[in-house]
Specification:
- The chain has 16 helices and 16 strands.
- With 377 residues, the protein is α+β, with helices and mostly antiparallel strands.
- The protein folds into 4 domains: 99 residues, no CATH class; 79 residues; 109 residues, Homing endonucleases (Endonuclease I-creI); 57 residues, Winged helix-like DNA-binding domain superfamily/Winged helix DNA-binding domain (Arc Repressor Mutant, subunit A).
- The strands form 5 sheets. A 5-stranded antiparallel β-sheet has the order 3-2-4-5-9.
- α10 crosses α12.
């Protein structure tokens, strides 16, 4: 598995353990007698007053120090970068307010890492502020999925300290820029390389493991997928990206098709993971979830399980369901998909009953100006 260290990140400021700063000061006296002599030999130039402050234990109670400064100091004292990394207690990028505590180094590119990458394409945006590094923001209206996204970040990087305590009460979760930088680096992309309309699945995913490919596919199912009794559908405007996801299905043995829309939806392309493929996908997901519990399909997983129950029912076209559907539509306007989920029936079964109810003029089409028509009384 690919690994990254603190020095592989961009524009990093750090805090280190108190004991480590004390150790540095002892080494300085042993090797240079005075701090002034060490200061004169450094490649990283800062004012001498700042240099002295950054070697005080109390300085780290409030301030972060540039990583390259401490690497330079450690190098002069014969202390390895790895030893410095072991003593880091928190880090962030310059100008950022959100920082990472109890960091996990080296950063390991696991299937969870690849799943975060998928989220950054699916429901992510890249924000660029003046004099700041770009950062990802994940837009998600489902609170459990927002919390799950943060859990994935923390699984890979360590605890994220958000300045805004209400972070879980908003719909947009930031990935600190110091962490975002590693995704640009690993996938060799700029800030526009993650746009869902133009993005492609990176070769680093295809060249990794089957677990990595499955994690990416699950990420797209969470953000862009629709689950019903017969299939999982992922509909995007990006034909090449859909074909990449279909390639993942092929590699993993999930039966799937691509559908090209017409009319007002001609810009959209759909990946359809068929029932047979959905069963294998869900079986593989359960195994992956045991390895990485943070890879969680959540409500989409519950819908997949429910779809298996629907298929096993023998009431698809019984006359009694006409009356059930009619009573529901007397109270609210629903689509075929919504009715299928509500009464635990296949879409084909619901369509059969809808057709008969329309034919008998017991219901009518309420709204046909959207992809899923609404029916009512």
């Amino acid at each position: 598995m690919k690994e990254y260290n603190i020095w592989d990140l961009e524009g990093v400021n750090i805090k280190v353990k108190r004991e480590f700063i004390i150790h540095l000061n002892k080494k300085i006296i042993e090797a240079y007698k005075t701090k002034r002599k060490l200061y004169s030999s450094l490649s990283v130039k800062v004012p001498y007053g700042v240099f002295k402050n950054m070697l005080k234990v109390s300085y780290y109670n409030k301030w972060f120090v540039p990583l390259d400064f401490l690497i330079d100091v450690c190098s002069k004292l014969g202390i390895s970068k790895e030893k410095l990394q072991e003593n880091i207690i928190s880090y962030k990028s310059w100008g950022s307010v959100n920082y990472i505590e109890k960091p996990k180094f080296p950063i390991v590119v696991t299937p969870v890492f690849h799943m975060i990458y998928a989220h950054n394409i699916g429901d992510g945006t890249v924000s660029i502020a003046k004099n700041r590094f770009p950062y990802f923001a994940y837009r998600q209206f489902n609170q459990l999925y927002r919390e799950s996204f943060i859990k994935k970040l923390e699984y890979i990087f360590g605890n994220i300290n958000y300045r805004k305590k209400e972070v879980l009460d908003i719909t947009r979760v930031r990935c600190p820029s110091v962490l975002s930088s590693i995704f640009f680096k690993h996938y060799d992309l700029n800030d526009r390389g993650f746009l869902s309309d133009t993005a492609r699945i990176s070769n680093s995913v295809f060249n990794d493991s089957k677990d990595a490919m499955l994690a990416v596919l699950i990420g797209f199912i969470i953000d862009e997928g629709h689950v019903d009794s017969t299939q999982i559908a992922i509909v995007l405007k990006n034909k090449e990206l859909v074909e990449d996801l279909n390639k993942i299905c092929s590699e993993l043995g999930y039966k799937s098709t691509i559908s090209y829309k017409t009319g007002e939806y001609e810009k959209f392309v759909g990946l359809n993971i068929l029932r047979e493929g959905m069963k294998k996908l869900y079986f593989d997901y359960l195994i992956l979830n045991k390895k990485y519990p943070v890879i969680d399909l959540g409500i989409k997983g519950e819908r997949i399980e429910k779809s298996f129950d629907i298929v096993n029912r023998k009431i698809k076209r019984t006359k009694g369901n006409n009356e059930i559907i009619l009573e529901i539509l007397k109270c609210e306007h629903l689509s075929v998909n919504q009715l299928a989920y509500r009464i635990n029936m296949t879409r084909q079964g619901v369509r059969y009953h809808i057709h008969n109810l329309l034919k008998d003029e017991k219901i009518k089409i309420i709204n046909s100006n959207q992809q899923n028509w609404l029916y009512g009384v």
